[in-house]
């Protein structure tokens, strides 16, 4: 009995960690993908957990039936949806208008200190949208610092920061780096010989830009557009603080009023539908391959373009962007952290908040690190339709707004697993669903880069498949796994909406502390946690850039 | 004595494509066999079948007399004791040279260390044992890959285009070194290559593979002088084909009267290797016109045209310079191999 269990277990393990080279036994039942049934099974189960809450949400929404449809068709609902869409489009355009020139200036022009400008220009990515929005309201609001500064000059009232304008301004400033990164990469990879060829055929500098460079940038522009669109659509913090009635805010308001929980679910479904539509558009539009180089190309470096008379306007433009995007938030936080910490009676114990945040983020990182491995193996080594479907579904958590994930889990737990409602495991599950894709992509890219001949070589030297994993695959994948876990940790630390919905009562993190302080206008309490979270974010950005560099080697 | 390796009627099908078909060959202990053929001919598939990375659809494979693959049995690669040197070397990037070489060894640490040291000395790299593979040159990586594969004393060593990643200057030297290392250890080796020079110089026997089957399986000399078909003749070495009329052991052609290696009757095609045609300074023989010449330093290749407009390629000593359009006389001395004309 003992022998057959161990035999079955070892067979299972061998089917999870098969060699990368395809081979099959002659026995018919071993043919095809069924050889790797263990891997598919584990990955399928994991992905089932990821999509289960969202499926439940869909069922709940479908339950509402005709009444639900009526609610969705009401003018008020349509206004909310169009609010979100308007914001998305506006932010996409303005973020591109800032990000693309910024990328070009720091990559192709003869601007002095280009690298420094680049790093500083990317910094707004580091600011969580809720923190940024809070500082903006504090500075540009009716009783804000800017108003006080400008009052002596006779300016009585600044334009209202709340509403569309504030949300648009904040989101533009914090998302334009999403255009900078891909556009910069595209410009760097561009073969200078292409532009030289265009010049030799008689095109002027402007013509070259419009007819040669810009088309080459198209994939990068689309990548940036998708990222900003997704970010804006799912944004919670900026929209809430600016009191702009977008879908996420409507969901949260509906959720907090006990009459409207079903409506929250319906609105969440609309958001899911819009997100899925965006992703589908992205897939369709991104069919083209990289346009950077045809053939081997030259190894020449790009000659910087001289700005001439445009130098001053360029510098001014970047200075304005950076003052708004970096100096305002950071400066405000520093000012607040230097203020006397006036608490409203509750003892502010930063250490406890920090420990809470780190422990739950750490556990989420561990869970995700483990769970991502089978999916990464599946994605890197198998290209069957089933494998692609499973891997694709695992990305669902990152694509959907955190608010929706939190909401789905709340409904699911409250109705199906009441014991788990508002417990730590549920919060960790929420983080795990949201941030699983970070670990999967990280591990998967490392696995995909590995020469498959290594597995064959190890087996030709006498190692069994699971030994191959232990002695070859794992050591090489370790860097990717650890990198992915670090990303999960850092993202969970500053996460807000999922935490607000799922955290057990009394469990506070740095992010939730900032949120409650903002609601009670105790601004001095926001300073230090805000700076801490920004430092954490910096760590995540540095990690992202470092890994990007590594994969380009 | 049982053959070290025996393949009987091996076939492997991918969908509707018969990658290899009817592969039968055998090799004795200590011999070098080369699978030679153009890309896509099935030689790498055959190699992977021998290694155990794939299973045959038909036929049987025996190593040292033991069945490792047939209709009922399949021995996985880690149990076959078949070592492999990969085209891209496939050294483990996270391990040092010494750890790479020790990878397939089992047993006590000091015993393993001694073996690693011996192998590195065999390939001439004892001073690099602590280096990482990324820091080595191509030739050094290849030698480490060889040491790693030989360390566990495999029954057979497979080498998949092992010299194709080396630049031409290095190739000759490394080839000679590898050959002497393998002879010294008495290893039974199977090479896979598309380079016919490599095959001719390294092997005891060559299996010429074309379109998934073995066209000819013999010694290099036999294959070069008596290629079984025109396709084999063209793939292994350069070939001119001259039509002729044979009557027994003699034939008459545009090259004059020649002797045949194989007696034939009727219309035939003669295989004339470029080095068999001599440009006669004494001006005796068949007349021909020089079309072009390529200088190689030690030799030259000359294109000539006969009176009946047949073009031939000739290899001859390089000292004499021929001018375009020059009229010369050529003779063929050696007996020639002939094919029935279809």
CATH architecture of the largest domain in chain B: 3-Layer(aba) Sandwich
Summed up, the helix count of chain B is 8
CATH 4th-level superfamily of the largest domain in chain A: MetI-like
* Relative helix content of chain B: 10-25%
CATH class of the largest domain in chain B: Alpha Beta
Largest sheet of chain B: 6 strands, mixed
Radius of gyration of chain A: 26 Å
Percent of residues in helices of chain A comes to over 70%
Q: Which sequence of SSEs, written as H and E, runs from N to C of chain B? A: EEEHEEEHHHEHEHEEHHEEEEEEEE
CATH topology of the largest domain in chain A: MetI-like fold
- Find the count of extended strands of chain B (DSSP E, 2+ residues): 18
Whole-number tally of structural domains of chain B: 2
What do you see in this structure?
The complex is a heterodimer of chains A (553) and B (342). By secondary structure, chain A is mostly helical. Chain A has 24 helices and no strands. In chain A, helix 2 crosses helix 13 and helix 20 packs antiparallel against helix 21 (465-493). Chain A is globular, with a radius of gyration of 26 Å. Chain B folds into two domains: 5-235, Rossmann fold (3-Layer(aba) Sandwich), CATH 3.40.50.300; 240-335, Nucleic acid-binding proteins (OB fold (Dihydrolipoamide Acetyltransferase, E2P), Beta Barrel). In chain B, strand 11 and strand 12 form a beta hairpin. In chain B, helix 3 (109-122) crosses helix 4. At the A-B interface, helix 20 and helix 21 of A face strand 6 of B.
